[in-house]
Design brief:
Strand order of the largest sheet: 1-2
Pfam families: CobD_Cbib
Largest sheet: 2 strands, antiparallel
Order of helices and strands: HHHHHHHHHHEEHH
Shape: globular
GO molecular function: ABC-type vitamin B12 transporter activity; threonine-phosphate decarboxylase activity
Pathway: Cofactor biosynthesis; adenosylcobalamin biosynthesis
Structural class: mainly alpha
Distance between the termini: 16 Å
Main location: membrane
Strand content: under 5%
Number of helices: 12
Organism: Chlorobium ferrooxidans DSM 13031
Helix content: over 70%
């Protein structure tokens, strides 16, 4: 074991994600977490607990079981062989990153739009957004895909990196459990308003710092690609707090500023029209080129984030043994 091993594990997992993405045939902890969360929900709803308390209990059970399972897998693999522990750590870390998958989904939309196949573009964008896509025109499809890359640049990219570098694979898996709980229960509807409150609030808390720090790294990425760096902070200052989410507005506004476009406007969910806040300082429509630029900016932001995070860890720690992560 070397002092740089934890950083090497995160970097290896990141490269593995860039190379493989998320093959559907491969076992994935996040899918297991989602399945387990639904089982616990079913159990809690049959209990006499008030819904908010049942929701809190579900959060504790799912996050605790996810982190505990990750710790147990790494510990058992390490006891078999130190390289086994390293391999298990890399695998678990790899499953928390979504740089390749996010880029691939958005690129599929861009290719369909460039080819003029509007039906295929609608089909592809439906995989990455929750809004109705059946009647979208080309600009609306490009807007939806670009917004998706911007929004998911935190919970699929920088936030998992943040917790991986700070807390190792157990922390990264715990973060993904929190994120999965929000995706599963964090809806403001009759079924989940009370039960999912704890899931939504914990996700807000977990993403609070990464969302804001990510703006700085989007700026670095924008500067590298000679995008509109000086529009980023005005866009964030004017628009980030208008977003319904306390966190999503930061990366979305930063991307809109960097790309020189405008996010938000009218969109349909389940047949009902909703008005999203306008983000960005330039009233320019999104295009297939905007999608390509957003993918490039997301990937560059992720790489700079990783390199800076590794550098900070090395500067702040004289020794960082793997045992700190698994004990």
């Amino acid at each position: 074991m070397t002092d740089a091993l934890p950083e090497a594990l995160v970097a290896s997992a990141f490269l593995l994600d860039l190379a493989l993405g998320d093959p559907r045939w491969m076992p994935h902890p996040v899918r297991g977490i989602g399945w387990f969360a639904l089982r616990i929900e079913s159990l809690m709803r049959r209990s006499p607990l008030p819904l908010p308390v049942a929701g809190i209990t579900t959060v504790i059970a799912v996050v605790g079981a996810s982190a505990g399972t990750a710790w147990l897998l790494i510990t058992c693999a390490t006891k078999l062989h130190p390289l086994g522990g390293a391999a298990m750590s890399i695998y678990l870390l790899y499953t928390t990153f979504a740089v390749r998958d996010l880029g691939d989904h958005a690129a599929a939309v861009e290719r369909a739009l460039t080819a003029g196949d509007i039906e295929e573009a609608r089909s592809k964008v439906s995989f990455i957004v929750g809004r109705d896509t059946q009647e979208m025109n080309a600009e609306e499809i490009a807007l939806a895909a670009t917004e998706s890359v911007a929004e998911n640049s935190v919970d699929g990219v920088t936030a998992p990196l943040f917790y991986a570098l700070l807390l190792g694979p157990v922390g990264a898996i715990a973060y993904k459990a929190i994120n999965t709980l929000d995706s599963t229960f964090g809806y403001k509807n009759e079924r989940y308003l009370a039960f999912g409150w704890a899931s939504a609030k914990l996700d807000d808390l977990a993403n609070w710092l990464p969302a804001r720090v990510t703006v700085l790294f989007i700026m670095f990425g924008a500067a590298f690609h000679k995008l509109r760096v000086f529009d980023i902070f005005p866009a964030v200052r004017m628009g980030a707090k208008l977003h319904a989410s306390p966190n999503a507005g930061y990366p979305e506004a930063a991307f809109a500023g960097a790309l020189g476009v405008q996010f938000g406007g009218t969109r349909s969910y389940g047949g009902e029209l909703h008005q999203a806040p306008i983000l960005g300082v330039r009233a320019v429509e999104c295009t297939p080129r905007t999608i390509r630029q957003s993918i490039t900016l997301m990937r560059t932001t992720a790489i700079i984030f990783l390199l800076c995070g590794i550098g900070i860890r090395i500067l702040l720690t004289n020794t960082t043994p793997i045992e700190i992560w698994i004990q």
